[in-house]
Design goal:
The chain contains 8 helices and 14 strands. Strands 3-2-1-4-5-6 form a 6-stranded parallel beta sheet, with helices on both faces. It has a 3-stranded antiparallel beta sheet with strand order 7-10-11. Strands 12-13-14 form a 3-stranded antiparallel beta sheet. The radius of gyration is 19 Å and the shape is globular. The protein has helices spanning 18-30, 43-56, 97-114, 127-137, 151-165, 206-227, 232-246, 291-318, and strands at 10-14, 35-39, 64-67, 78-81, 119-122, 145-147, 172-173, 176-177, 185-186, 192-193, 196-197, 251-259, 268-277, 280-284. Strand 8 and strand 9 form a beta hairpin. It folds into 2 domains: 10-147, Rossmann fold; 151-307, Lactate dehydrogenase/glycoside hydrolase, family 4, C-terminal (L-2-Hydroxyisocaproate Dehydrogenase, Chain A, domain 2).
Amino acid sequence: MPQKHRDKNKVTIFGAGFVGSTIAFSLLHRNVAEEIALVDLNKNLVASQAMDLQNAVPVLGYSEVKVGSLKDVKDSTVAVIACGCNQKPGETRLDLLQKNACIIKTLVPQIFKTNPNIILVMITNPVDILTKIAVDLLPAKKKQIIGSGTLLDSLRLRFLVGEYLNVNPQSVHVNIVGEHGDSSLPLWSAATVGGEKIINLKKFKKSVFDKLFLKARNEAYMIIKGKQATYYGIGAGAAFLIDAVIMNKRTVLPVSHFINGEYGLRDVCLSLPAVVGETGIMETVALDIGLVEKKELLKSAHKLQTALKNLAKKTQKQK
């Protein structure tokens, strides 16, 4: 297991594109990392991103920002995988699967060989399946492998619900769970605002709140259509997750992780609320959810498992 006391709060980010660089920028804002190493095959891009980030250091939290390599993993607390093919307009996250699976299969073993104690944060899509591929490669490290999952989806929904109820979204606690994609679902039965269950509020109408959920779920497609990529939301969300690991905050977050038993789910990686701290996934939070929600969650898991099986078949045929 990862050591409890580390010499340096260092983060190595693989991928210096929109997402990776924005995660680095968000970490500067949080003032949580002593050192940030950016790794990318595009040497001109990564050098420029590091230089640009360095220019922000004097007015943000101090961090050493540099162009890095795999060797930087050795003394890092967290490694982030934000590299791979981007989602294009009209393309689902699952369409990216075959393109990005090869990257994960090559990179993840190298990361853990370099530092067995590392906490690995998966950002690249389709994040749930790629997280499961990473876990299958190194089952003993499953608690140290965290996918960003529906963290961003949940943040989007919290904003929309807060806007609708005219309250600060930080007072809204609602989780989207399951796949980070089209089969995800909101846990309205466990959602609260100011300590009160949302379903008990006078303003609660399921049809209205389900529309808010659909808007939150589809926002990624709208953003990608308008500007080719999403990065501010995931950058802030990933930095929040990394902060929870580095500072051992034991924060409950809806992140993708290995599930084998909860809610009848078996051998799958998807998002459920979990306690996140210095050792990664410290425990899963058991929620009392409705029967309909459980059925939808099982459907979401089945979709992910089917996609993974299809990938295995395609890979076998190509050999």
